[in-house]
Structure formats: structure tokens, C-alpha cells
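User: Can you predict the 3D structure for this chain?
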Amino acid sequence: MFRSPILQTIRRLSTQTRQAIEQALKEDPVVLFMKGTPSRPMCGFSRAAIQVLSLENIDPRKLATYDVLADNELRQGIKEFSDWPTIPQLYVHGEFVGGTDLLLTMHKSGELRKMFKEADVVDEASEEAAEENGNENSAETSNAETK
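Assistant: Here is the predicted structure, written as C-alpha cells:
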């Protein structure tokens, strides 16, 4: 029987890892699989993903992050689970959104903000405070310009 060398190199996602990923995606509305932690990202792409989530005012109570560097089975398994070759990976309500490149594109277009608001994962208090500070800064700038 002929066996393709390509098929022989494909790993199979273990049932245990699949179940752990599925459980993680059920427990929290926003899940980021990343290299490192939010306070100590271990690659520039993970740092950028965390920065985008911060700019989007994601409610920290609705966000879970998983350090794939701490678990090699998870590191390989999440790539197979999503059929996406890179990390970080963002999920919202169990649906794969994408990696950093897609997050940045969606952030710039406003599509990410809309998706997060529809998913009810934005920290409204932080967003209102940021808007108020923006308005105060705008008013201060206007006052300074008129003096």
C-alpha cells in the first residue's frame, strides 16, 4: 500500500487537547492563545494582539489568555484545531477570528470594534472614560488654541 510522506507527517490532535481547547472556548467569551502572558508577551505578534485588545477596551473579565509556550501539546494542537498555522489566535464566542494580521486590519477598519460590541465584550465603563478623556483633551486643546 502506498503511503504519502506528507500524510505521515501530519499530527493528529489528541482527544484530550481538543476537549481542553473546546472547554476553554466555552468558558470565556474572548480567548487568545498567545506566546507568553498579557503582562509579558514573548513575541511581537502576541504583544500586538494584546495591544489591539486593550485599544478595543475588551472587558478583562471576559478575556482569557493561554500561554502556548507553557504547553507544547496546546501549541501544536491549537494550530490543528483552527487549521491556522500561526500564533496568536483569537476566538470570540468560540468562533475563530484570526491572527494578529487580521486583528490589525479589522481594528483599522472598525470591523473589530463592531464585532466586539455585538459580542458584548467591551468594557463600557473604560470606553466611556476614554471618550470623556478624549473630549476633555479636545476641549483643552481648543481652549489652548484660542488663548
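Helices lie at 5-9, 15-27, 44-55, 72-82, 100-109, 111-118, 124-146. Residues 2 and 104 are 44 Å apart (CA to CA).
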